[in-house]
Amino acid sequence: MALAVDTARRPGVRFADARLLWPRASERLVVRNGQAETLSRQEDRGIGIRVLRRNGWGFAATSQVTRDAIRSCAHKAERLARLAERTRPSPVPWVEEARGPRNGRYATPVREDPFAVPVQRKLDLLREAERALHVSSRVKSGRASASAFLDRKWYASSDGASYESTLVHVGGGIEATAVGEGEVQRRSYPTSFGGDFAQGGFEILAGLDLVSHAAECGRLAQRLLTAPSCPKGRMDAVLSSDQLALQVHESVGHATELDRVLGYEAGYAGTSFLSPPDRGSFRYGSDAMTVEADATVPGGLGSFPWDDEGVPGQRYPLVREGRLVGFLTSRSSAGELGLSRSGGTARAEGWARTPLVRMTNVSLRPGSRSVPDLLSEVRQGIYLETNRSWSIDDRRLNFQFGTEVGRLIRHGEMQGYVRNPLYSGITPEFWGSLEATADASSWHLWGIPNCGKGQPGQVARVGNGAPWGLFRKVQVGGGG
């Protein structure tokens, strides 16, 4: 790593860093209707080198990790930085980082290496769980999946950061699809779109206990076929932890990424309804809304000791009691806003990509009420659980979400199921209707392994935590 940084550090270079991933590995297994549908394992290695001159960045990467290839890569990055200077008349914003330990080693605590577990053992677990989904002939499709990711990284920079980290992420889930009565209904566990993920070993997948939850998934998918349509109108809504975590992800996490706020993402995935002057003054939601970014929470997909610019992982608020107080930042975007340091959220998908501002673990803090106490505040409303579909505009302002499960609430008690529930809103109005959040017993940090962003596209693994939440007078409707 010293070779890469030293080679790149030529006259006029303000900053240089290098990231070596060796190996970067992933494994994915999917069982559908008794058959192994997907069985893939990928592994690569390579080094990415960035160079910052006064007015421009250069980046180059190579999968060849010989000394000659590394030197050539570093020279290329520096040449590209010199060329980039011609396109920018003013210096690139940049903040120095001198706080906290900037070197060391970190490895995910793993009890059982997921890549060492025999494939047959993993397939047997998934087949058993998928088989149990088929509680009747109406369950036409069952699916069980598991994935594991490994990133072993070496990092060094010209300003003294140097670390080695090994991150292991594991997770999975099950899904039953029932057909009948002119309807198709799906029920997932522990949540939709591949399930739940966390930092750890094979024990994470085993701890999800997919087999014991499979039959209930199948039964509920079947039951939803004959449930009445979701009523339409404005009503109180209680969102489950997993649904509220996705709401945080889409309408708070992405909206507070400073590169989006500054317009850098306008070409792909949009911008943000927020602007830099909003920090400290904009009313994002009610007093019950406090959202934090936390890269230090144990076990999160967005947890790490240092980001891809050598900045230590941090915990800090984005929204405090309904007021916007911070953004997710990199060293460059923080400099553009005039901040004293980066929030440590710059991450790249791999060695061949340059870091972007990404969510860490962006979470809504729990309140003090028990779930029964929260429900007791609802005279007539609806409970919404597990995302089925979502749509949100490029500014993260107008949205509509559909859920797999909806249940009517009357006088604080859960009643029958309803079919194809939807809810919609405008971000600050919706969060302004947040009456209360349940206590920590309902809070969970969900792992999202496929958050997309950037051009060329990058996929990040992030965390979003939430308790149950009560919202007043939400626009609710049925999808058929």
What does this molecule look like?
This protein is α+β, with helices and mostly antiparallel strands and 480 residues long. It folds into 2 domains: 2-224, PmbA/TldD superfamily (PmbA/TldD fold); 233-478, no CATH class. The protein contains 10 helices and 23 strands. It has helices at residues 2-8, 67-85, 119-132, 202-207, 210-224, 241-253, 258-261, 331-337, 371-375, 427-432, and strands at 13-32, 35-53, 57-62, 103-107, 139-157, 162-180, 183-189, 196-199, 233-239, 291-294, 315-320, 323-324, 346-347, 356-357, 361-364, 380-392, 398-410, 413-418, 421-426, 434-437, 444-453, 458-466, 469-478. The relative contact order is 0.14.
Describe the structure in brief.
The chain is α+β, with helices and mostly antiparallel strands and 480 residues long. It has helices at residues 2-8, 67-85, 119-132, 202-207, 210-224, 241-253, 258-261, 331-337, 371-375, 427-432; strands at residues 13-32, 35-53, 57-62, 103-107, 139-157, 162-180, 183-189, 196-199, 233-239, 291-294, 315-320, 323-324, 346-347, 356-357, 361-364, 380-392, 398-410, 413-418, 421-426, 434-437, 444-453, 458-466, 469-478.
